[in-house]
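A protein record in our archive is deliberately plain, so that people and models can read it alike. The record that follows is passed on verbatim for readers who wish to inspect the format.
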Amino acid sequence: MRYARWTLVALGGSVMVYGVVGAISDPDVRPLGHLLFLAGVLLAHDVVLLPAAIGVGVLIGRCLPTGARVPARAAAFITATLLVVAVPLALGLGRRPDTPSALPLDYGRGLAITALVVWATALAATLAATRRHGSHRR
């Protein structure tokens, strides 16, 4: 495991060095703009996203029974990731009336179906764990 970890660290570091060297050597790149963007992403993560994730995790821990906590937390994480990716598509951001093939699908419906599948899977996992643990107690 230690060898695999260091291999992944070396590969990730190499990719980061490649990206930084490419950005520095590209004449069209504006380093100040990239630094401001990265600072904004870091700030949004640390001030908004991380506290929200911790709060949802704590709320799930307080409101749900022990067997349902892990599936509910996993489903909440997956749903949040889906929302980040799919909400701009569902809202039609970037859709142009003169290009009907740019965003041709009903992304809101797809998002709803995918979220329902995620939560149904979490419910099924919870019920299966409850039955499994219930049969061991008898």
Remarks:
- Helices lie at 2-25, 31-63, 66-90, 107-137.
- The first helix runs from residue 2 to 25.
- The radius of gyration is 22 Å.
